């Protein structure tokens, strides 16, 4: 019989929470308390003495409380000291309090529910690249297009740099993709900016970019890092950098820097075909993770998720 408690944000033992997430193979950086605290209101489900945990980000609208995945947060779900079995996963989902009228969240690649769970599940796609081999062995799996574009970027005089301000990363991202993500508000960006600043100040992240021969920034990115992974959280080329394949070179050089480590490079998605096609050029492993939906709303309410 499971021992799962519902604990409100103010009562969570953050020290025990973060020790579990940080030291578990299935713990991802999105589930660290600094990330959650900056991005959302959240309560949690906790098994025993923080043996397994699951954050529950939530909002309230029109008198209804709903659980959701905030922008810029990839995979949430259950983290644990030991293997997360289907039974444990099912117990956690069933323990989500019924006062959450809607549950619409990502779990993670280590969470699998039984087929007969009765819960609506959609599989989402992520790509990861283990970095334990020497760089030449990793690069041998880059496809022809990636290798060609990297050569062209180098021939154009582009080069890798870590002398990049986090404000430049956000500016590049908004200019390149802001019009495609109109649901992301300035408040969302400000929250995520706090996450990045905290990560930079605590050795949990770094910025990187590509410059041209004149020293002008062509692409910029922010990467989070923990004991297990490097996460490509935010990045974009400028208009000239896009023409010169700057992002190809940027990812190439970050992979090269960390090759031979025990880390995994996490591309953070994607279900968008064009983005997935770009990531697949680097020879990653495809991983899926569940997105679950539980709808306890009155049938006449359709506007809550808008």
The name CATH uses for the topology of the largest domain is Aminopeptidase
SS-based structural class? alpha+beta
**What is the alpha-carbon Rg in Å?**
20 Å
- In angstroms, what separates the terminal alpha carbons? 38 Å
Q: How many strand segments?
A: 13
Textual characterization of the structure:
This protein has helices spanning 14-23, 33-39, 86-94, 135-139, 144-155, 166-177, 186-201, 239-243, 246-258, 273-280, and strands spanning 4-7, 41-47, 52-61, 64-68, 79-80, 100-106, 120-130, 159-161, 205-211, 217-225, 229-237, 264-266, 285-295. The chain has 2 domains: 4-124 and 289-295, 3-Layer(aba) Sandwich (Aminopeptidase), CATH 3.40.630; 132-262, Gcn5-related N-acetyltransferase (GNAT) (Aminopeptidase). It is an alpha+beta fold and 306 residues long. Helices cover 32% and strands 29% of the residues. The model has no long low-confidence stretch (mean pLDDT 95). Helix 2 (33-39) runs antiparallel to helix 7 and helix 5 (144-155) crosses helix 9. The protein has 10 helices and 13 strands. Strands 1, 2, 3, 4, 5, 6, 7, 8, 9, 10, 11, 12 and 13 form a 13-stranded mixed β-sheet that branches.
How would you concisely characterize the structure shown here?
This protein is of the alpha+beta class. The protein has helices spanning 14-23, 33-39, 86-94, 135-139, 144-155, 166-177, 186-201, 239-243, 246-258, 273-280; strands at 4-7, 41-47, 52-61, 64-68, 79-80, 100-106, 120-130, 159-161, 205-211, 217-225, 229-237, 264-266, 285-295.
């Amino acid at each position: 019989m499971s021992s799962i408690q519902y604990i409100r944000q103010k009562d969570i033992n953050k020290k025990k929470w973060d020790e579990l997430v940080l030291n578990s193979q299935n713990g991802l950086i999105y589930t660290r308390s600094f990330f959650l605290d900056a991005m959302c209101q959240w309560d949690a489900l906790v098994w025993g003495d923080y043996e397994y945990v699951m954050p529950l980000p939530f909002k309230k609208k029109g008198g209804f409380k709903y659980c959701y995945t905030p922008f810029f947060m990839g995979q949430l779900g259950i983290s644990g000291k030991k293997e997360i079995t289907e039974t444990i996963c099912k117990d956690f989902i069933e323990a989500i309090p019924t006062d959450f009228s809607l549950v619409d969240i990502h779990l993670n690649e280590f969470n699998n529910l039984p087929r007969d769970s009765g819960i609506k599940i959609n599989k989402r796609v992520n790509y990861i690249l283990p970095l334990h081999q020497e760089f030449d062995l990793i690069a041998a799996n880059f496809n022809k297009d990636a290798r060609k574009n990297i050569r062209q970027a180098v021939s154009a005089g582009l080069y890798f740099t870590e002398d990049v301000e986090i404000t430049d990363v956000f500016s590049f991202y908004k200019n390149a993709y802001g019009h495609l993500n109109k649901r992301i508000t300035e408040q969302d960006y400000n929250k995520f900016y706090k996450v990045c600043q905290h990560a930079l100040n605590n050795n949990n992240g770094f910025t990187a970019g590509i410059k041209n021969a004149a020293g002008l920034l062509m692409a910029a990115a922010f990467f989070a890092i923990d004991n297990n992974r490097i996460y490509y959280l935010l990045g974009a080329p400028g208009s000239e950098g896009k023409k010169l394949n700057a992002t190809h070179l940027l990812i190439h050089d970050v992979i090269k820097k960390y090759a031979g480590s025990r880390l995994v490079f996490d591309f953070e998605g994607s279900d968008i075909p064009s983005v997935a096609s770009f990531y697949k050029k680097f020879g990653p492993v495809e991983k899926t993770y569940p997105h679950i939906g539980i709808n306890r709303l009155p049938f006449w309410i359709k506007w809550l998720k808008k």
